[in-house]
Amino acid sequence: MAIGSLVLAILSVGLTASLLLPFLPAVVILAIALWFAVPGVIFAGMIYRRQAGRWIAAVLMGGVGGYALSSVVLLAMWTAGVRGVPLLAAPAGAIGIAFIAATVCGEILVPPPLDVRDIAAAGVLVALVAGVAALPFSRVGEATPEGGRAYRAYFTADFVWRMAVAAEVAKGDRPPRNPFFRRDHLRYYWLAHLVPAAQYHHGRGRYRLEGLLLVNAIGVNILFSCFVYAFVRQWTRGAWAAGLTSAGLFLCPSFEGTERLIYLTWRSVPFSLVRTLNIDAVTRWFYESLPVDGLHRVVWYQPQHAVGYALGLGAVLMCAQAARPIRVSVATVAGSILALALLFSTFSAVMTTVMASTILAVLLVRDRGWGWACVAAVCGAVPLALATILARALAYVDDASGSLVQILVNPIAVNNVWLALPLSFGPFLLGAFAGGVVAYRRRATQVWMVGVVIVVSFLFYFFVDVKDHQLVYVGWRAGHLLFLAFGALTACALHEVAGLRRPWRAVGSVAAVFLALAGAPTFAIDLYNTQDISNVMEMAVGRWTLRLDADEVTALEWVRRYTSPRSVVQVDPVARHPATWAYIPAFAERRMSAGIPISMVPLQKYEWASDRVARMFALDEPNGLYLEATALAIDYLYIGTPERTAHPSLDAVLEQRPDCFRRVFKQGAVTIYYVERRP
């Protein structure tokens, strides 16, 4: 059975990857992702005690950590100017670091009792997660019959942003420049995108950036799905219970889809209306409460956060697996893992650091490790301090306007909370409650650690906000961590149901199936919608599908081919906001003097700079427009339909001074002018 599940996983992953790139390059990229994971597997295997299931646990739990550590070594090589094939040696360097660290630490962890059944369950989960990604990934940037390209709206928010970041990182500046604000660094945790960026730099345009990013995402999804299974399995003795629960986390996330179907039935409205809904945000759209995304959306859109979650909760798992009494080396390794998380998904790392620190403090007090407490705290804090220094050196954070996080009672989170929470977490809220009762009655000694994850996540959910994200950002990060914690308790409940006597076992099984079916419509609707590039209807922030017409595709390709990678190509960011906010950085892979990103805060400086650019486009006198364009260091003006709609006389103004604005491209509705530099 284990061999069959592995074959199924290989076929599913291979088929999905081959939809995105030619078969051989896709296999090579996946192999690179797995090669990058090897250091973590070696490290985990060495710090586990020698007993059954040791290397199975190491493979399932260590891969994400290895990928992160290899990426940090890759960063060192990239910063030193190494490019191309030699970068593949990064995992070898990481293996050396992992081997030395594991030798110093010794066998400090007790592996969970895993066996071949766990290999089978994890293999099926990997195959399932790859299948979940196959159809949406295959339609990202799909060619239209007219010669254009189509991007579903969800992907323009998350995936197109990754395109912009990876394209900029691939240029090789250290640290990368900000494509939305001139003379600034890229204010984002861009290490998560360094691996595909390095591949894109080496490939020199032989393969589309979209394909490289998506195949790399599949590699990360393999590691993440293995970790999800291992995390859930840690808290239950049943492999099948962990497998079913892990699958449910991706396939049966919430009751929001069922709620909308019931509502539409009651109102006698056609079910086709769900095509116009962000179905996993029903709590936000209709009940004005905090939205929570299911884990399937992490698979589709956010590999950087998948790595951050796995690393952060990996520190929590270390506390559960640590040999008693707790040794200082456990705090050191946990702090190092959290430091890696900080470089991949900063806010997730902040939350999980609070969780792991709380758990370690409780364990040290319980074991009366008073003498070691301060030493452990310092040993755990040092790696985090070093990661913070590195993050500042990489220019991750723009703290010119003070703290980017604020403590408050989130008014959205508390609005309709008793309705929003059951809708958002669906069957897993009920499953977690049942699992908590089971754990209490069984006096499960380690499950309280899951309780810490839940309590800390809810504290952030209700009382913390990240500026300029409409009070909703923390709900996504805390919500994903809550799903994983609820999944651990739900697996406990399922395992308990299997041990009941026949009548009660049947009742429990029917209840579990009913809850799963009630949670499945959200995923089914979301899966259909996220690949539906035929839906071009309007929504509040543009159309459900962004379509680049043939002229735009040709113009953007011209920019990529015939302009310098560091050229500044400017559109009117105000006229294009919010529908095509990343148009130039993502699709043309060039910088703008000013733009309005959705993932960098604070937004005020971007808005002010973009207003200045919009005023430049509105000038009706070519000399003034030229002086402003040169002051903004603009090399090319890209004029499309949004610019002409907002500024009807713009073409006439530019054509008055061909000595200042040389037309270098014109096709259909797109004209590109080069801004001449006077001696």
Give a description of the structure.
The structure is a single chain. This protein is 64% helix and 6% strand. By secondary structure, it is mainly alpha-helical. The chain has two domains: 2-180 and 190-531, no CATH class; 549-675, 3-Layer(aba) Sandwich (Rossmann fold). The strands form four sheets. Strands 8-9-11-10 form a four-stranded mixed β-sheet. α3 crosses α4, α3 crosses α14 and α9 packs across α21 (473-498). The mean pLDDT is 94.
Descriptive key words:
679 residues, mainly alpha
SSE arrangement:
Elements: H1 2-18, H2 23-47, H3 54-79, H4 90-105, H5 116-138, E1 142-143, E2 149-152, H6 153-157, H7 159-169, H8 194-203, H9 209-234, H10 239-251, H11 256-266, H12 282-285, H13 295-301, H14 303-321, H15 328-344, H16 346-366, H17 370-393, E3 405-407, H18 411-414, H19 417-442, H20 448-463, E4 464-466, H21 473-498, H22 502-531, E5 538-539, E6 542-543, E7 545-548, H23 550-562, E8 569-570, H24 573-576, H25 583-588, H26 604-618, H27 622-631, E9 636-639, H28 641-646, H29 650-655, E10 661-667, E11 670-675
Parallel strand pairs: 8-9
Antiparallel strand pairs: 1-2, 2-7, 3-4, 5-6, 9-11, 10-11
Helix pairs in contact: 1-5, 2-3, 2-4, 2-9, 3-4, 3-9, 3-14, 3-15, 5-9, 5-10, 5-22, 7-8, 8-9, 9-10, 9-14, 9-21, 10-21, 11-22, 14-15, 14-16, 15-16, 15-17, 16-17, 16-20, 19-21, 20-21, 26-27
Give the biggest beta sheet: 4 strands, mixed
Total tally of structural domains: 2
Structural class call reads mainly alpha
The coarse silhouette is globular
Uncertain spans = none
Terminal CA distance reads: 74 Å
